[in-house]
Structure formats: C-alpha cells, structure tokens
Automatic annotation (TrEMBL):
Keyword Metal-binding annotated: no
Any one GO BP annotation for this protein: phosphatidylinositol phosphate biosynthetic process
Domain PIPK: from-to ranges: 59-427
PROSITE patterns listed in its UniProt record: PIPK
Location of this chain's protein in the cell: Cytoplasm
Taxonomic source organism: Pelobates cultripes (Western spadefoot toad)
Region (Disordered): 1-34, 437-456
Alphabetical list of Pfam families matching this protein: PIP5K (PF01504)
Superkingdom per UniProt: Eukaryota
Record GO cellular component, one term: plasma membrane
Protein name (record): Phosphatidylinositol 4-phosphate 5-kinase type-1 alpha isoform X1
Amino acid sequence: MASAISETMSGTSPGSGTVAKTASSEMPSSSNQFGVQTMKKIGHRGVDSTGETTYKKTTSSALKGAIQLGITHTVGSLSTKPERDVLMQDFYVVESIFFPGEGSNLTPAHHYNDFRFKTYAPVAFRYFRELFGIRPDDYLYSLCNEPLIELSNSGASGSLFYVSGDDEFIIKTVQHKEAEFLQKLLPGYYMNLNQNPRTLLPKFYGLYCVQAGGKNIRIVVMNNLLPRSVKMHLKYDLKGSTYKRRASLKEREKSFPTYKDLDFIQDMPDGLFLDPDMYSALSKTIQRDCLVLQSFKIMDYSLLVGVHNIDHAQKESAIVDGQNNSDTKRPAAQKALYSTAMESIQGEARHGGSIETDDQMGGIPSRNARGERLLLYIGVIDVLQSYRFIKKLEHSWKALVHDGDTVSVHRPGFYAERFQRFMCNTVFKKIPLKASPSKKSRTMPGLTRRATQSAVPTHLQLTGESKQYLAVEGDLEQGESPVIAFIIVLLPAPLSTHSGFSFRCTLRKARPPSPNPTCR
C-alpha cells in the first residue's frame, strides 16, 4: 500500500530506523536491478558482470528510472500547494513516498523493483528554483522528458554523474555526510545567493534520496557548468595547491582528461588573459565567493575551468567539411538565470571588451599566450567539504611529511587566501590597457630610438644628501616644430608637497643644440 509521509529531519540519517527496515524487507537483494553483484568498484560506483554501471549495487538504469519517477511525483504534488514565504522549518522538512512496482493510487506502475523516494526541503528548493527563473514545467521537462545521460568521466570520488538531455542540469550522487552538510548549509547559503545571484558557487536545485536494496542513494541536482554541445579542448580542476596536483597517467589516458594545478602551470605558464574589466569582475566574484565559503568553514573546493579554443574549433570544423558536429554547434540557451560563466560574474563585464568573438556561447572570452581566442567555462565545485576533525588530522599528517602550505587540505581562511592568490595571479591575467594616442610619445623624424636613449638617460640619480632624481618626459605637440622636452623634478629625501621644483629645457631641431640650452 502506497504511503506519502511528511517527516521532520532529526539527528539520524535519512532512511534510518523503520523506513530503512521497510525498504530492506520489500526489496530483494538478488535482482538484476537492486543488489546486483559488482565486479569492480571505485568507492560506491562499480561495474557488474554485464558491464553496466552500478551504485551501491543498484544498476544505473534502475537508478535513473527511480529518480525520474520520484522527481515527477514530488514536483507535481508540490505544484498543487499554494505558494508562500519560506519559513525556517521548511529547510528541515523531508517528504517520503513509496513506489511499489504494481503502482498505487498515488504512484504509477513501473518495471523496477520497489523503492522509496525522499525529497528534502521541497518548499525551500522550490523557492530557490524560482530565484533562478526555473519554472516547475521546465524543471520537469529537462529532467524527466528524456532519459538521463550518464557521464563516463566521473572522477576518483566514486560518484555517479548524470546530465539532462537539454544540458541544463547535472545530477550527482553524494555521500551521507555531504548531504547532511548541505541540509545544514541551506539557510545561510541561499541567503547569500538571494542577495547576489551572480556567483561562481554551485546552484543546488534539489536534494533527494532513493532507498533501494536497503541502501540510501542521495543525489543533488545542480547547474551544468560544461555544456556537452561545446567541445572543451582542455579541462582543469584547480585548487591552488601543488602537493599531488598533477593528473595521473590513468587520467591522462581518458578521452576527456581533467588536469590539475601543476599541469596548468606547465601548459600555460603565462596564464589566461582577460580584458581588464572582465578580469576585475572575475576577481571580485572569486573574492566574494571565497568569503562566503570561509564563513561557512568550507574548504577543499576547486575551480573547474573548461577551455574551448575557438581557433582550433574553426580548423576542426573546416576539416570535417561542414558536417554536423555536435561538439561545435551552439548550445541551446539555458533556462536558468545566472547559469552560464558570463552571467555568473559581475554584471558590468557581461559585454564588450577587446576580445571579440562571433558567438560567446555563454563562455568568458579570453586569449592564451599565443593569441588564440578562447572561451572559458568556470565554476566552483566540491563545496560540501567542511573543516572538520578528520580534515584537521589529514592536514596535520600531511604537513609532517610535506610543506604545510602546499597541501590542499588546510584551514578555511588560509585555503581561501591561497585559492584567490593562485586564481588571480597565476591562472587569470589582465591584458594591459592600450595607451591612448594622445598620451603616446611621438618620435621625431630622423631621430632614432637608440640616439634618443644614448643622449637622454631616462633615470639618473643625482648626488647630494637630498637624493634628487632626474625624470625625463617626451612632450611633442602635432604641428609644432620637432622639440625634445625635458621635465626635471628635484625631490628631497622625505617627500613634501612644497619641496622640489621643476624647469623645462627645450632643444629645437632647426638649429644645432648649443652646449648651454636655454631654460625657462
């Protein structure tokens, strides 16, 4: 008999106690969907004898089906409830619904084994989705209209990643501690996002739990940083640390490897160049986001940087001779507000600049040291790590063997400072402003740069106790006779607003310079 349960979170983990026992007794452990024998594992992720991916012994196909059934029900039932302001207790509500295979008066029949689906803080997450302009029908259409797509490069964490068919959302499995931390984080975290939605921090749109085979599989729905329809020629996971921050040989063998800090320093020693306004906006956003993470004692996060090389993509497109290539076509506009890299940084740098592209596709325009045009897709990831006791122990142990300032596990304040310094000084660089024509020194016809430099030293230290200096400045006006102008400023050792004086010496090219030029 189907049952819809609304419960309040307590100190116990979701799915514990009576609910977990009920789910366990109703779901057989020997099934081709739940409880399947796993051949090899990375964390909770494994591959069964048929070659299908499993998570906690639940096949990926069964998990995807359960997720879509559960989200369809919970979003649909929530839409029948009147909208209201979010209360503090809304952050701690959990709704649970049981899905028997034969169906019920509340749930449809399905060909998976029985499972239970839990929704955390449904009213609060509805408000969060509205904050980013995501309507319920768009949310359902993106996640449930087409089969979810499993991403193969899921990293070393052992998590499963799914992407919606329209590239809008990412679904990631998270551990119990991460889900628990997100629950506690929600009120303050989204108070910050409500005040400033332009952020590189991840946007969480939903937190759910599938109870299958006696196991709790917790998932979170987030914004998708790297659209599949844009080819990423390079991808980096950057922390600002050097200890073990190089991609392994196994990672490099992947078709779409994720490189790390030392790889970036080796590949791009000059960094990625941005327009001054864009650099300033990005730096401010990183600084503000780090302050938010530090206030919540969050650490060990990374900046995910996807690099799309426009020049390489055009060459690749020419090679395929106009064939339809899904890697180079423009992605559909994302429905969520502030979801692209360009929208995530400060508003004043959203348009314009000297780096021109025909189609920015949501990326941040940039150039490398070779002058190639790039689009950057960036965002902060892995924020569900708090500086708890185990992290303190981990850092203390690593610091005994290695330099304590180079390891990635650090106290939140130091971690944030090092993160900002690495991103704003090493990864991203500012393109120097071009000098205005009115401020450029015009070289006299017939006067070589070498002759000018040899005749006029640009920085000459004078003798005397006052430590006076000679400063030279070119000053030629268009239409006038060619003139070399000097401004000499004598500054005493302690600078004073009334000390020092200046005089102007001119030498006209019309007549040979005399040994004692006139001064005025």
